Amino acid sequence: MGAIYNFNAGPAVLPPTVLQQAQAELRDYQGRGMSILEMSHRSKEYEAINAQAEQRLMALLGLEGGYRALFVQGGASTQFAMVPLNFLASGATADYLITGSWSEKARDEAQRLGHIHSAADTAADGYRRTPNPEEIRLSADPAYVHLTSNETIHGVQWQRWPEVGAAPLIADMSSDILSRPLDARTFALIYAGAQKNLGPAGVTVVLIRDDMLERAAKTPPSMLRYSVYAKNNSLYNTPPVFAVYLLNLVLGWIGEQGGLAAMERRNSAKAAAVYAAIDGSASFYRGHAAPDSRSAMNVTFRLPTPELEARFVTEATAAGMVGLAGHRSVGGARASLYNALDQPAADALAAFMIEFARVNG
Ligand code: PMP
C-alpha cells in the first residue's frame, strides 16, 4: 500500500513513532511479560504512566502549580453536562459564546440543567467567524463563560480570547489543544477529547484550576464530579488505561518536537499551504471561514457544485488522501491538519487541489 495521507477529523492521525512504540510494547511492557492492557490500573507501571501524562500536560501548558490535569471518560460530550452539573447552581446563569455546531451542543446540553444566556451567536452569518468584542453581551454575573476554541465542523478558531472580567472562562479545546502556545491560565477549566491532537478516543483531558475544584457542586454522582477525579488522581474507578498510555506517548512526542511553539510552526505552515490553494483558485474553492477566523486545524471549503465536491473527495481518496469529506451538516470538503499530520501531506493536498481546479475549473 502506498503512502496514505490521513485528513480525518477525529479519531485522527497519530505520530508514526508513537504507533511503533505502542506496537513494540504491546506484548511485553517494559519486560513485565504482558501488555499495559492486561495490568492493574493500581500497578506501579500504570501509576507511573498516569502521573507522567499529568505532569507532561501541565508542563506543556505551563500550568504547574494551581491546576490539576484529570482523565475522564465519556468524551467531550460528557463535559457538556459535567460543566453545568458542577458549576451552574440553580438561580445562576451561565454564558455561552456560540460559534458553530459544537458550542451549540454544549449550550443545549447545559440548558437541560440550568439557566443559559447566549452571550454571542454568529449563526446568522453561517458560523463563519468568532464574534467581535462589541458583539459579546455577558449576563450580569455569569457562573462561567463557555467557548469552543476551535469549531471542528465549521473550521472557525478563536484567535484572541474574549474579555470576561472576573467570570471563570471555560473552553472546549477538543480540536486544537496543544496546537499552539497559549496563556492557559486565562482559563478556569479546559477540556478536550483526546482523539484529535492528543491520542485515541476514550479519554478526555480536563485541566482545572484549584479554586474551581473547591467551588464545584458536591451533589452530582461521583463519576460526574471533578473533585472526585482530582482527589483520586483520576483513579477513582478503572481508567481507560490504553488511551492514557497512548496519550502519554503523544505528549512525549510533542515535547520532543519542541512543544507548543514547534506545533504552531508546523501547523501554520500546513494551513498556509492549503489556504493558499483555496485563495489562489479564483473562487473555484470557497473557504467557509472568514480569513481572520480561519482554523489552522480544520480547513473547510466548498467547490462550485455538489457533483464537483463528490468527485473531489473520490479522486483525492484514490490518490491516497483520505478523510476529506465535509461534515454531513455543512457539506463541502474539510481537511483536518492536526499536530501529527506532516507537511508532505498538506503539500500533497495543496498540489492536488491546484491540479483539480485546473482540470475542472
Ligand atoms: N467538541 C468538539 C470541538 C468536537 O470536535 C467534538 C468531536 N468531534 C466534541 C466536542 C465531541 O467529542 P466526543 O465525541 O469526544 O464526545
Task: Provide structural commentary.
- The chain is of the alpha/beta class and 361 residues long.
- Helices cover 37% and strands 16% of the residues.
- Strands 2-10-9-8-5-3-4 form a seven-stranded mixed β-sheet, sandwiched between helices. It has a three-stranded antiparallel β-sheet with strand order 11-12-14. A two-stranded parallel ribbon has the order 1-13.
- β3, α4 and β4 form a beta-alpha-beta unit.
- α7 (241-257) packs across α8 (259-279).
- The longest helix has 21 residues, at 259-279.
- The radius of gyration is 21 Å and the shape is globular.
- It starts with a strand and ends with a helix.
- 47% of the residues are buried.
- The model has no long low-confidence stretch (mean pLDDT 97).
- The chain binds 4'-deoxy-4'-aminopyridoxal-5'-phosphate.
- 4'-deoxy-4'-aminopyridoxal-5'-phosphate (PMP) binds at residues 10, 75-77, 102, 148, 152, 172, 174-175, 193.
Q: Please state the oligomeric state of the protein chains shown.
A: single chain
What is the structural class? alpha/beta
Distance between the termini: 31 Å
Identify the strand order in the major beta sheet.
2-10-9-8-5-3-4
Number of helices: 10
Helix content: 25-40%
Look at the structure and give the mean pLDDT.
97
Which regions are unreliable across 5 or more consecutive residues at pLDDT < 50?
none
Shape: globular
| Total count of strands | 14
Could you tell me the radius of gyration in angstroms?
Answer: 21 Å
The portion of residues forming beta strands comes to 15-25%
H and E string: EHHEHEHEEEEEEEHHHHEEHEEH
The unique ligands bound to this protein are: 4'-deoxy-4'-aminopyridoxal-5'-phosphate
Major sheet summary line: 7 strands, mixed
